[in-house]
Structures are given as structure tokens and as C-alpha cells.
Amino acid sequence: MQFSELGLSAQLLSAVAEQGYQTPTPIQAQAIPAILKGRDVLAGAQTGTGKTAGFTLPLLHLLQQQAIPPKPRPPRVLILTPTRELTLQVYESVCNYGKHLPFFAEAIYGGVSIKPQIQSLQRGADIIVATPGRLLDLINQNYLSLAKIEYFVLDEADRMLDLGFITDIRKILKLLPKQRQNLLFSATYAPEISTLAEQILNNPVEISVAVRNAAADSVAQQIYPVKREQKRELLSYLIGSQNWRQVLIFVRTKHGADRLTKQLIQDGIRSAALHGDKSQGARVRALDDFKSGRVTALIATDIAARGLDIDQLPHVVNFDLPQVPEDYVHRIGRTGRAGAEGQAISLVDQEEAYLLAGIEKVLKRQIPRVADTGYDRVTLDTNAPKPKAKPQQQRPARPPHAGRADHTGKRPPHSGNRPERGSSRDDARAGRGARGR
């Protein structure tokens, strides 16, 4: 099948051709006709299979069939995403595919100044791509109304639930017109997704083009059993000895991302960190440097597991295994996209063996182990129970009058240990705050 057979307008077909595409992916071939018919859609597909174009193209076509409303145009399409990175990716797709059409789109997300977004909305926008928190901020300040929304898309719905956005989603649903077309896209399925779909969708077409919660066949997966204290050394060796030019490395914490970045730089590897404590400008620069080849290793927390769209990314490394097994699928889905081959390597010590067991249960198969890593031999026992949490050290007793004014009437200087505020409401609403991601 060709894109020309899907019933899209000439302007959209021209834009698709300019992007270098001729043949739709399976999710696009099934979703686009259903959306054009006005059906609600529940779609599941592996990450990297073209879900974004699967809903962007038909929605642009449907808008094209309508009369253009007077200025300032009210938004008629709302696309809700869980992260800033994914918001920008979807917004870019809308702009690329709609470049020959007279529509305006706006990206709404936290972590940046709200004023430019307010100004754009005041000029009018046909399509809104947004994260939940900033969207509600603008609504509560009367800068945005959802009263004219005709098409509602919930993208990466499973990630939405993982990040604790269900309360915000329910608030937004109450503000939408009852008569609308709904599309729910998700890379993985969980029972909660089915419950959410029942609340949102009306007699939907259900589309699933791949095994649920499975990794793409184009990704070669390997486990390197290694002691935690030797992980960084092994990682540097793999990057250097195999001459890797571009590798995305996932760690569990922001502090761990910064620490590993400094260590790899000391090893002579051009590296950058990407996590929730970075400003939006710093995150964009790090990603641009990585895409352009100025940076070899991008060390990221799971905030980057969704929304990163990097052409021909060859290598993904799990320096730390994710706590949620399904996140493993999202992480390694950054490579092996659009039919390209990729490699996903996980460095696993015995304390993470229980996490590996959960991942292999989701995948329904064992990931191959590398027998000789060149480092101390580690035998992973996936049947071992989860290690007990180490007891926390008791804080030293607070000295008398600590934090109180001294005899001069002045307070002692701040120690600098006070936690930072979250960088945005969207991060805070993710259940852990900006620092937790």
C-alpha cells in the first residue's frame, strides 16, 4: 500500500513525500482510514512504528475539509502528551505534515516562560499539543478554552498513568465537549489502559499491530552481568573498543546521570546529561549536540524514554535497569526504529536480578547473556528475592538552637541542603516532583 491510497489530500501527500516516506507503516495503514471515517480509535503499537503520523495526518485532513473559523481561531484539536520532549516531537510532526495547509499549531508545556504561549493562543491556534499541567494553568487563567475541541488525542496513555496524570486527565475530560472524536494511542497495554479507554472512547476501532509489551525484532538485546562498581569501566571499554559514535545511556536518577557524565568525560568520551533538573534550553542543546554528533554519549533518566526521535540511533545502554518492566521496552525502542537495526545492552549486577526477572516476564523470553565480559564473573540469579533495603543512617542529633537566631539576632547561613523547587507544574504533577524524574 502507498500513502496515495489512504485518501489523504494532495497537500498532505506532498508533505509526506518531502519527508521521504512513500509506504505507510502497519499502524498508519490501519489507523488513518479509521480516523478519516470518524471512528474513535484505541491503538497499540511498538514505539518507533509511526504512531504520531498515524493520527497527525488524518486529523489535518479532517480539518482541511472544514471552513476556516474567524480569527482568533479557537483550538479544534487537542493532543495530550506526558512529557515536554514528546510534546515538541508531536508539534514538529504537525508542522512538517501541515506545512502546505493554512493551520496554526501551538506547543504547550511547562519549564519555560508562559508568556510566549499566551501570546500565541491570543493570536489563535487550530491545534494544541500539550502536557497536562501547563494546559490546566492556561485554562485556569482564562487564556484557553476547550469548548470548541472536535478531536481529542491521548498519546502515550500508559506513560500518562505511570507519571500520575490521571487526575489531570479527568479534569481535562470534563472541559471537553461531549461530541468529539477520541483517539487513544499507547506503546504498551496495562489493565488501567482498558479502564481509561472505556471512559473516553465510544465504540472504538481497536488496532494492535504488534505483540503487546514486546520489543522490536530489529533490536539485538544482550545482558552483561557485571558488578556495580565495574559498570562504568565496562561501559567506557565498550564505547571505545567498538568505536561507538552515538549511544543513549539510561540511568535511574538525575544525580547518577550527572555523575556518569563527568566520569565518561574524564575517560575521554564526549558526553552530556538529560534529565528533569536541566532547563528546557539545556535539554534542547544536549539533544541537538547528540543528534549532530558533537556528543557521543547522552546519559538520560526515564524522562527521555518517550519523545526522543533520533534517526538511525545504533546503541542503547541500560546502565541501570528500570523499576517498571514496561519502561525497558520504551527505552530500547529508541533504537531499531522504522525498520533499522539497533543494539540494546544492559549492564546488570546481582542486586538488579529481580528487575531483570520482571523484564523477561513481560518479554516472555530470556535475554541472551554475555558469558565473558572481561570483568569479574557474575552469575545472575533471577529467582532470588528482591534485596532488602539498606537501613538508613540516623541523622546526628540537632544541636541546641540550630536554625534559631543567635545572640546578635542573625540567623546562621543556610547550609545549601534545602531541596530545590520543581522546574514545572507538569513535573510536579508526575507524582514525584521535578527532582524525582
TrEMBL record:
Stretches with biased composition (Low complexity): 384-396
Protein species of origin: Methylomonas paludis
Record motif Q motif, residues: 1-29
Reactions performed catalytically: ATP + H2O = ADP + phosphate + H(+)
EC number(s) stated in the UniProt entry for this protein: 3.6.4.13
Annotated GO biological process: response to temperature stimulus; ribosome assembly
Domain Helicase ATP-binding: 32-207
CDD domains linked to this entry: DEADc, SF2_C_DEAD
Basic and acidic residues composition-biased segments: 417-430
PANTHER family per the UniProt record, alphabetical: ATP-DEPENDENT RNA HELICASE RHLE (PTHR47959:SF13), ATP-DEPENDENT RNA HELICASE RHLE-RELATED (PTHR47959)
Top-level taxon: Bacteria
The name this protein goes by in its record: DEAD-box ATP-dependent RNA helicase RhpA
Keyword list, A-Z: ATP-binding, Cytoplasm, Helicase, Hydrolase, Nucleotide-binding
Family: Belongs to the DEAD box helicase family.
GO molecular function: ATP binding; hydrolase activity; nucleic acid binding; RNA helicase activity
Annotated DEAD-box RNA helicase Q domain residues: 1-29
Residue ranges constituting the Helicase C-terminal domain according to the UniProt record: 218-379
